[in-house]
Amino acid sequence: MFTLCQYQLIFFHYACFYDFFHSYSGPKNCVEVLKSGFRLSGWYTIYPDEGAPMSVLCDMDTDGGGWIVFQRRRDGSLDFYRDWDSYKSGFGSQLGEFWLGNENIHRLTAEGSFTLRVDLEDFDGTSKFATYRDFLIEDESKKYTLRYSSFIGGTAGDSLHVHKNQPFSTKDQKNENSDINCADTYRGGWWFEDCHYAHLNGEYLVGDQKVRSRGNIWHSFRGSSYSLKSSQMKIRPEI
Fold first, then answer.
1. Torsion sign, CA atoms 47, 48, 54, 58
2. Domain-embedded: residue 190
3. Model confidence over 138-171: pLDDT tens digits?
4. What is the CATH number of the domain that holds 92?
5. Of 10, 105, 162, 165, which shows the fewest CB atoms inside 10 Å?
6. Which residues contact residue 71 at a Cβ distance below 8 angstroms, ignoring those fewer than 6 apart?
7. H or E stretch covering 128
8. Model's pTM, two decimal places?
9. Does 3 have pLDDT greater than 60?
């Protein structure tokens, strides 16, 4: 899905053709894209590790821009109840919801230090965020374990602390420390730990729920019985 030259707007096509015909090695991340003069949010081709090119969504508007978005939920149009290989390679649409892929997230964070930003919105139109320092995802041999050094801050509070240093799990690969299969029970892959305090890949539900922990959850924002409307998870090199 996330292949070179799949762009929707004219200036994306220009960047794509320049890369193709000139074999341009190009920017490593969205900060370098921004510095090269592309200031509109959208999909760009980057070269994060001198390997294969990668198409990523660059958020050029939030907090100075330069963010690579690796997760987007907004309307429930995409099912996130998927297997290990799907989460590994990525799924979704450039025009809608998507998961960039654990292998891609690992590639992006394998070198250097990155800030993670989580942007959230509830069904009342309230938006909040949280940021984390030194975010990275380990490789597949380490089950794409989530690492970060510290919570920086933000209005949404810290709901990721339970998931720090936890491996990724899916409905067909249980890696968490729990008596149940959390990914199967809560219908989405995540870094579970008996099971979750945050879960942004869960079943898309609307607002208040009678059953706790179902839906898209960020406990320190609206609690464990409220499913959020939208989320974005994004990274940017630390300054």
1. negative
2. no
3. 999 999 999 999 999 999 999 999 999 999 999 9
4. 3.90.215.10
5. 10
6. 98, 99, 100, 200, 201, 231, 232, 233
7. strand 127-133
8. 0.89
9. no
